Amino acid sequence: MHTLPALSYGYDALEPYIDAETMRLHHTKHHQTYVDKLNTALADYPDWQNKSIEDLLQNFSSVPEAIKKVVKNHGGGHANHTLWWQIIGPATGGQNLPGGELLIKLEASFGSFEEFKQKWLDTALTVFGSGWIWLVVEGDSLVITTSANQDSLLMEGKKPILGLDVWEHAYYLKYQNRRADYVNNFFAVINWSEVAKKMTEK
Ligand code: MN
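Above: the input record for the complex with manganese (II) ion. Below: its predicted structure, written as tokens.
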């Protein structure tokens, strides 16, 4: 059984950058639905029921044909949102910047932190419709990539360490169509220490 992960902060903790109502709906309705539909589909497949979401997605080619679509859409949604709640957190005030090895890798990969941020903003505005922006570890480098719908990069054997949900449900209540403002404000609530931790994890 997959379960909705608890958040380590309150729904209002990311105000004013991400509003409490969006957080509550996103967690209790959208993410919960991905978990529920995944569990329903897996109910008839005992061999697959107890695998972690990472195992399911990393071994996607072996998943039974009849449940592939649900695992891709709802399993992907579960994995993507589980990462999302981890890599955002309460704004600490002042500049929210990465440090240490993560900053060194960002600078080596993009030229500077500002160039990384600009490329992230530009990329977020090119995603048509619903999808995600990702920062992925590739060898010694960090690269920005995108995925459509709830496709998980784990299905491609990639290692995402930062993600940005650009589905309208992630921002529409507060930002309406102003995706650029949402993406800019995302930088105030990134939990960089969690991103750094994911970078060093196997
Ligand atoms: Mn979402």
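Notes for the reader.
The pocket of manganese (II) ion is lined by residues 26, 30, 81, 165, 167, 169-170 (CB under 6 Å).
The chain has a mean pLDDT of 96.
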